[in-house]
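Notes from hallway chat w/ T.B., transcribed later so I don't forget. T.B. wanted the structure written out for a chain they're using in a teaching module, and asked if we could keep both sequence and structure tokens in one place. Agreed to drop them here.
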Amino acid sequence: MLLIFQALFISLHFKYLIGNYVNSKPLIISGLALTALLYFYESLDHGLYKYHNLTNTTLSIQFIIYSLYYFYNLLKDDSYVNLRYSAGFWWVTGILFFCFGSVISSLFYYKLSVILITTKGSLTAYIYYALNIILYSCWSYSFICKKWQTSILKK
């Protein structure tokens, strides 16, 4: 159920970030339409409260494509951007690492889930812990960079 909110939040943020370079509205709307169709299909297939693997994997692949497209436009841009203080760069980097890692983990889930690290946790659990730490570290630094940018602009 929360997958729809995740798709909307991240897609709208990508619309803003990619929109700085090109018209991103058709790309984002088509991605959200595909996500809605897959979510509706999976909800009819196995219920609303079950895990929607196809929708989640497709959404992660969309976010990987959006991230790479953002980086491509960032490289193509003529203006200088100091990546150390670029909030958008760090936000997209967190999404890219998390989505790429989660797609790879879900592809190899059956092989990774049998590898036990502790008696209570498999390797996939620890991979997702690490991916969450990377995602939220990048996002936290992104928000710090945004705060630095807004405080510099106020002076």
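Follow-up for T.B.: The chain has a mean pLDDT of 90. Might be a good example for the class.
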